[in-house]
Amino acid sequence: MIGDILGCFQIGMGDWWFAGRIEHFIRQGKIKVLEDSENKYARVICLAGTLSGG
């Protein structure tokens, strides 16, 4: 997802900013990790309450 955003929009922010925002939303419970990975960029995520039944 981050690569797609950076590839389509030249907004002057690095991938680290988007990764940090995603981490923040995971901690808040707004985003859920469906498949975890040691590489944070390889995780499968979704909005909390969607696709996961809860």
From TrEMBL:
Residues 1-38 form the DUF3658 domain. It comes from Enterocloster alcoholdehydrogenati. It comes from the Bacteria. This is DUF3658 domain-containing protein. The lineage of its organism: Bacteria, Bacillati, Bacillota, Clostridia, Lachnospirales.
